[in-house]
């Protein structure tokens, strides 16, 4: 049986550290979240996040807009948040409704406030190994891996998924850890065989229980990023499952994250960490400009 990582406990200790640092600041970091429409995965995220933002001593600004919001209205909100001195971090929940141009919205976010690390500026900084804001879920995964594995030099890491929010940035961070990185995705041939080469397997495809126990190298570390809501055994009820068939995988892997209670809580803790990082950088820059 694999060692099961408790992401909730790890995230709690991260948040305790963040709260302690926020308490020493001469200002209050503010985090704005924009939710357009009602994507179910996004709603889980918003609910957990708002409470934890306040718990660590930050201000939480929530903007819930109707699904029919126009591009111009959403752009205007992002610009207002860019200009708002009380807001240090801006997160626009994805996916946006289809009629909106996601790229243009992300491009409008000030890179200094881009706590999701999605702007071209922050993605470029990450790709070049320079300090910017790193996407929260990838950051959470790396913190878990560093805690469990320490030095990852030379390990084979397979990332299943190539999104800008998760797959690509995780691959960059694993490269920085000196892993040999393979990025696989929904069009990859012989996906099972490629997964089986992984010492570190990151599942981030958004397909419930796609990755089976016999795709996993015995003793591998498996990080399940998937948050899929599926029908539960009880009629009318739903449950969260990951991208990994957990009950099989737990028999083969050496270390594994569960869903829920694995990467999800780490994502929120890292969001708060990014908000703190952004706030400190913004306030320090302002101080310099004024002196
Ligand atoms: N721009 C943007 N950035 C995101 O990072 C982003 C997004 N959009 N859109 C939605 C997805 C989804 N997401 C979650 C993060 C944490 C939990 C989470 O805390 N899950 C807990 C609780 C689950 C539960 O409530 O049962 C867990 O896995 O244990 C869930 C979902 C971030 N996302
Ligand atoms: Mg894909």
UniProtKB/TrEMBL annotation:
Domain of life where this protein originates: Bacteria
Instruction: Report the EC number(s), separated by commas if there are several.
Output: 1.5.1.5, 3.5.4.9
Kindly state which reaction or reactions the protein catalyses: (6R)-5,10-methylene-5,6,7,8-tetrahydrofolate + NADP(+) = (6R)-5,10-methenyltetrahydrofolate + NADPH; (6R)-5,10-methenyltetrahydrofolate + H2O = (6R)-10-formyltetrahydrofolate + H(+)
Q: Which residues form the Tetrahydrofolate dehydrogenase/cyclohydrolase NAD(P)-binding domain?
A: 135-281
Which lineage do the record's taxonomy fields give for this organism?
Answer: Bacteria, Pseudomonadati, Pseudomonadota, Alphaproteobacteria, Acetobacterales
* Gene designation per UniProt: folD_2
Q: What is this protein's function per UniProt? A: Catalyzes the oxidation of 5,10-methylenetetrahydrofolate to 5,10-methenyltetrahydrofolate and then the hydrolysis of 5,10-methenyltetrahydrofolate to 10-formyltetrahydrofolate.
Protein name in UniProt: Bifunctional protein FolD
**Pfam annotation, one family:** THF_DHG_CYH_C
Pathway it acts in? Answer: One-carbon metabolism; tetrahydrofolate interconversion
Question: InterPro entries, from UniProt?
Answer: Aminoacid_DH-like_N_sf (IPR046346), NAD(P)-bd_dom_sf (IPR036291), THF_DH/CycHdrlase (IPR000672), THF_DH/CycHdrlase_cat_dom (IPR020630), THF_DH/CycHdrlase_CS (IPR020867), THF_DH/CycHdrlase_NAD-bd_dom (IPR020631)
Keyword Flavoprotein attached = no
Which family is annotated?
Belongs to the tetrahydrofolate dehydrogenase/cyclohydrolase family.
């Amino acid at each position: 049986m694999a060692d099961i990582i408790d992401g909730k406990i790890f995230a709690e200790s991260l948040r305790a550290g963040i709260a302690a640092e926020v308490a020493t600041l001469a200002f209050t970091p503010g985090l704005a979240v924009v939710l357009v429409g009602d994507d179910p995965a996004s709603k889980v995220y918003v609910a957990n996040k708002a409470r934890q933002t306040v718990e660590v001593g930050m201000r939480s600004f929530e903007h819930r807009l109707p699904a029919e919001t126009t591009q111009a209205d959403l752009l205007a909100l992002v610009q207002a948040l860019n200009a708002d001195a009380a807001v240090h971090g801006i997160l626009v929940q994805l996916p946006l409704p289809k009629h909106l141009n996601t790229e243009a919205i992300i491009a409008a976010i000030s890179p200094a406030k881009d706590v999701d690390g999605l702007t071209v500026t922050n993605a470029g900084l990450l790709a070049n190994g320079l300090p910017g804001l790193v996407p929260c879920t990838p950051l959470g995964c790396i913190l878990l891996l560093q805690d469990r594995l320490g030095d990852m030099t030379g390990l084979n890491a397979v990332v299943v998924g190539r999104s800008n929010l998760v797959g690509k940035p995780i691959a960059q961070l694993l490269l920085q850890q000196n892993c040999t990185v393979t990025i696989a995705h929904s069009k990859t041939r012989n996906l099972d065989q490629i997964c089986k080469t992984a010492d570190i397997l990151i599942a981030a495809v958004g397909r419930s229980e796609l990755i089976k126990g016999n795709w996993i190298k015995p003793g591998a570390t498996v990080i399940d990023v998937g948050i899929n809501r599926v029908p539960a055994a009880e009629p009318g009820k739903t449950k969260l499952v990951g991208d990994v068939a957990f009950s099989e995988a737990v028999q083969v892997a050496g270390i594994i994250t569960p869903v829920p209670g694995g990467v999800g809580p780490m994502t929120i803790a890292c969001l708060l960490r990014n908000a703190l990082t952004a706030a400190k950088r913004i306030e320090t820059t302002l101080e310099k400009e004024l002196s």
